[in-house]
Amino acid sequence: MTLIDDATRFCYVYLLKSKDETLDYFKIYKAEVENQLERKIKRLRSDRGGEYFPKVFDDFCAEHGIIHERTPPYSPESNGVAERKNRTLIDLVNSILDTAGMVGEALLTSCHVLNRVPNKNKDKTPYEEWIGRKPSLSYFRTWGCLAKVNVPINKKRKLGPKTILSSKIDVPDIYARYFKIFFEITPELNAPTEAFEPPREISPEEDNNEAPRKSKRQRVEKSFGDDFIVYLVDDTPMSISEAYASSDADNWKEAVQSELDSILSNGTWELTERPYGCKPVGCKWVFKKKLRPDGTIEKYKARLVAKGYTQKEGEDFFNTYSPVARMTTIRVSLSLAVSYGLIIHQMDVKTAFLNGELQEEIYMEQPDGFVVKGQESKVCKLLKSLYGLKQAPKQWHEKFDTTLTSAGFAVNEADSCVYYRYGGGKGVILCLYVDDILIFGTDIDVINEVKSFLSTKFDMKDLGEADVILNIKLIKDESGITLSQTHYVEKVLSRFGYIDSKPSPTPYDPSVTLKKNKRIGVNQLKYSQIIGSLMYLASATRPDISFAVSKLSRFMSNPGTDHWHALERVMAPRFVLEGYSDANRIYDDELYATSGYVFMLGGGAVSWRSCKQTILTRSTMEAELAALDTASVEADWLRELLMDLPVVEKPIPAILMNCDNQTAIAKVNSDKENAKSSRHVRRRVKSVRKMRHSGVISVTYIQTEKNLADPFTKGLSRNVIDIASKEMGLRPI
After folding, report:
1. 139-142 — which CB contacts under 8 Å span 24+ positions?
2. What number is the average pLDDT over the span 243-268?
3. pLDDT per residue over 128-183, tens digit each?
4. In terms of domains, do 430 and 578 share one?
């Protein structure tokens, strides 16, 4: 492993037995540089070798404030200093190497020499610039020259030689770190005898170092594409010193001060002496520019974040689970608001995670740039939660939950992030998604009452009538509410270069059969980014692309040209949506069938899913039963959600489940068991029957062409897609 200082070109070389030792030697290098030379490592640039990718390596760099830069794939020129140094070292090793088994020593010697030789660009040697004084070259000798070793006085004989002839291989360091003399005689110096055997010459043919066995596992080379370079071109500051030295220093200072004021006014910590044996949690400043839809800067944001990755489970934290409202819950609530004429408002909790009460005793270092003078040795004892802590989301939800339940709100049993209060003909429903709150009320007075209550408990921002929630725009008209993500779609298309693409009639071509790519992947990073963007779109407002996204997401590890063509087809259509859906069907030559379901409420789809089944089915009927079981579970959850909302009329009738397979329906409606069915299929049949008997669902037959679940199982023709989209509430642009 070579480590080169970029300014002086001084080089360190370490001989590793395996790449697992990379971090250990980097720690040794860091300790020597800091202790002996009083220098600090600020940035580390490396290639994309696997030895630099373990999480422990990233954690070590982050813990010591070292910015780790990795070069783009197949771009050795991005790390030219190290690449050129390695080539120079190898050339020098090949020039001086003439003895078997001495490659490591030759490499150390080459590094030692190059550090003490000036280059054409500088008058001083790397050693002089690095150490601060000129190097001594008096001990330099030719590699492999003969040398005489002085025999210790207690080993000398009266008539014997005073020195022993040997082969002087190397003098790589003045402190003899790597100094080695290889005697040409047997090492009898420590136990002299009357006679000794003549030296045995070392021959290259006698080198018994066998090459390690090559792994037979086939490795597919990954391609991240040219777009990976964008990660290296980012003007967002990585530290408070970079922020204050940038051209936007005034804006960053204002953002930092605003964040610190919120923390101090909230009583998040108190300064105290560090307890004996305590290792405080570190912290860092995180900066971000919040952009408007047109790309201009709306706000400069600074956040003080604790380094939660240094916490130890069982000491600093225990449970970390924190729920958020499901997207289906939000859609159901919006649909109910249209049906019952509810008013919808929105609020945002400023620095929400700072409100959580900590149950553990946690100490943190003072934030960079705001260390109190005269109290540098003290640490911050956290009284309340802070962003970055493992338990921060959980503590915030518990604080919010306690606050609302103490004010008379009830918690929905199906979704613990839904709260409601009803009485006297007036009611209000709250949906919490981390720090975003949707408020549904029967009139404006009850909504204002809730807003006033929340403002007395937390630092709130009143956003008025709900306009945009979770990147979804709410468009209200006489017919109801349209959920639109046009701005998000345009942003995704523009980001990946598909803004001017020709529209495609359907998201997926039914004539295409996709299989795993066994060749080199094509731009895997960009493929994954597009799939990630489409997944959110498919789960929020685009049920028509659910099957295509679900199908294409199975090839993210190594996409090929065929997968890219199919993905570009998904990126082509553009719609404005208001519904949500899912379905089930067996497709192409895969072993596992694809399941999906769709639930409609108030004229629009509110819940859907398209996914591969987890069990192996032997017939279409078994696949339909497995899918019906998955849909029934969602139906049970939706019914439980509606049962706990005060605006819904009770009792709720059984949810009608439409299925286009008459054999599967007969199987569910019959109480007879078929011993030939697989055990896992029988379990699912019993589950569906139980829900049917309890009145949760009722199963009926529907023709395939009228089944809205069909588009979620396979690619279909344009006419079928258009009809299904219209039924689900989709509106073409």
Report:
1. 139/171, 139/174, 140/113, 140/171, 141/168, 141/171
2. 89
3. 888 888 888 877 877 767 777 777 777 777 677 777 765 444 444 333 333 344 33
4. no
Is 522 part of any domain? yes
Q: Is 91 exposed, middle or buried (0-12, 13-18, 19+ CB in 10 A)?
A: exposed
Dihedrals phi, psi of 557, to nearest 5 degrees: -70, -30
Question: 357 and 316, same structural domain?
Answer: yes
| Final residue of a structural domain among 403, 435, 469 | 469
Position 500 scores a pLDDT of 66
Is 208 within the bounds of a domain? no
| Whole-angstrom distance, CA of residue 545 vs CA of residue 713 | 11
Task: Give the list of residues 6+ apart from residue 721 with CB closer than 8 angstroms, or none.
Answer: 505, 506, 507, 544, 711
- Verify that 567 and 429 share a domain, yes or no: no
Work out the pLDDT band at 428, boundaries 50, 70, 90. Answer: very high
Q: In this structure, what are the phi and psi dihedrals at residue 437, rounded to the nearest 5 degrees?
A: -125, 125
Mean pLDDT is lowest, of 193-207, 297-311, 411-425, 598-612, for 193-207
- Residue 224, in any domain of the structure: no
- Picking from 118-132, 185-199, 261-275, 566-580, which range would have the lowest pLDDT averaged per residue? 185-199
Residue 695 C-alpha from the chain's centroid? 42
Of residues 580, 648, 581, the one with CA closest to residue 440: 648
Burial per residue of 283-315, b for 16 or more beta-carbon CB atoms within 10 angstroms, e otherwise: bbbbbebeeeeeeeeeebebbbbbbbeebeeee
Question: Which phi and psi angles does 406 have, rounded to 5°?
Answer: -70, -20
Kindly report the pTM of this predicted structure. Answer: 0.53
The range of the structural domain enclosing residue 570 comes to 481-732
- 318 with 182, same domain? no
Residue-by-residue DSSP string for 605-667: EEEEEEEE-SS--SSHHHHHHHHHHHHHHHHHHHHHHHHT-TTS-SSPPPEEEEES-HHHHHH
> Per residue in 380-409, pLDDT tens?
999 888 888 988 899 999 999 999 999 999
Chain-centre distance of CA 670, in angstroms? 48
Residue 37 clears pLDDT 70, i.e. is over it = yes
Does 251 share its domain with 313?
yes
- HSE-up (13 A, CA, CB side) for residue 311: 23
| 272 and 308 inside one domain | yes
- Helix or strand run (H / E) with residue 254: helix 249-265
